[in-house]
Amino acid sequence: MSFDSFAAFLAMGGHGLYVWLAFGSTVLVMLANVVSVRVRTRRFFRDAADQLRRQQAASGSGGQSERRTGGNRAPELDQMADGSIDAS
């Protein structure tokens, strides 16, 4: 299908309103899905890092010796939680 002008392209032979609303709503839903996944992923890693900190604090170590020696602490969780590493 070819169009004589840009206005004819936008009108889509009289179906432009339906076509562009369907296109726009599809793009909107897809963007909402991407944003939702990113937010939930960041929240997950932030909560995991918080839980790890609480467990280390409860064990009495406070995480200081593990941080210096590279022990069981997961610094990538902290970096993902604060946004310095992209979690996706």
Could you characterize the architecture of this molecule?
The chain is mostly helical and 88 residues long. The protein contains four helices and no strands. It has helices at 6-11, 16-58, 64-69, 75-81. Helix 2 (16-58) packs across helix 4. The two termini are 40 Å apart.
List its salient traits.
about 90 residues, mainly alpha
Biggest sheet descriptor: none
Indicate the radius of gyration in whole angstroms.
24 Å
Q: What is the element string, with H for helices and E for strands?
A: HHHH
Percent range of helical residues: over 70%
Beta-strand residue percentage? under 5%
Low-confidence stretches: none
Structural class: mainly alpha
Report the total helices.
4
Mean pLDDT: 82
Distance between the termini: 40 Å
How many beta-strand segments? 0
What is the general shape? Answer: rod-shaped
Set down the secondary structure blueprint.
Layout: H1 6-11, H2 16-58, H3 64-69, H4 75-81
Helix pairs in contact: 2-4
Question: How is this structure best summarized?
Answer:
With 88 residues, the chain is mainly alpha-helical. The protein has four helices and no strands.
